[in-house]
Design goal:
Length: about 220
């Protein structure tokens, strides 16, 4: 399929690896950068279409918020999702059925205020309310930098029925901007921290990026 991700925030927190490693399935290896593990929250909205077809009706601007960390399998770096909240019941069902990912339906709102994005998501006790504003010109991250390590990953991993699967993705390098983030409420990080994490250790913003997504393949 083809997705176009828009108004995407990367909010990154560094954590001791021993806090994150027990939350990773044993089929995957936690990836670290200079002795630190990283946890990321990414709210955005997207359009969805099958390759060669127009955007699906009702899928021109679907909000999604995911919580993720970073893993490797056989030396290939990728992403492992703890949760993916989305404002579409049908998309929740489809992603769980075909990608075996932990998607959840949530109530979500997005509002643009000049250059700022106000974003809220609520699913029971899992809540996120924040406002973010890009404040620099777009630029690609340098290879070897932390931003490059966090964002330039071209697959996701999931484990289903005890087996690891890889979903390959492809896109151009992220056109990132520095960003100011004001988090009013955050319980999405309670999984890894007893107290909600507020100001991220690193943040960036991407206005738009087209992403190609392939079906899962088993990692043998």
């Amino acid at each position: 399929m083809v997705q176009v991700w828009r108004d995407l925030l990367f909010a990154h927190w560094k954590l001791p690896p021993e806090r994150v490693r027990p939350l990773i399935p044993p089929q995957l290896t936690l990836d670290i950068f200079k002795d630190d593990a990283w946890f990321t929250i990414s709210p955005f909205h997207m359009s969805i279409r099958a390759r060669g077809l127009p955007v699906l009706p009702g899928y021109g601007a679907v909000p999604e918020l995911n919580c993720r960390t970073y893993v490797t399998v056989d030396g290939k770096p990728g992403i492992y999702f703890f949760s993916l909240d989305i404002a579409s019941i049908a998309a929740t069902w489809g992603a769980r059925m075909f990608y075996h990912l932990p998607y959840f339906h949530a109530g979500m709102k997005i509002a643009r205020q000049r250059d700022s994005i106000a974003y809220s998501s609520a699913r029971g006790a899992a809540k996120w309310v924040a406002k973010y504003t890009p404040n620099t010109a777009m630029q690609s991250s340098e290879p070897g930098s932390l931003n490059h390590w966090l964002t330039e990953r071209y697959c996701l991993y999931t484990v289903w029925r005890g087996r690891a699967y890889r979903g390959n993705i492809h896109h151009l390098p992220w056109p990132l901007q520095d960003v100011s983030v004001n988090i009013a409420q955050n319980t999405m990080t309670n999984l890894i921290n007893n107290d909600a994490l507020q100001s991220p250790d690193l943040g960036s913003y991407a206005r738009e990026l087209e992403v190609l997504i392939w079906p899962l393949e088993r990692v043998r």
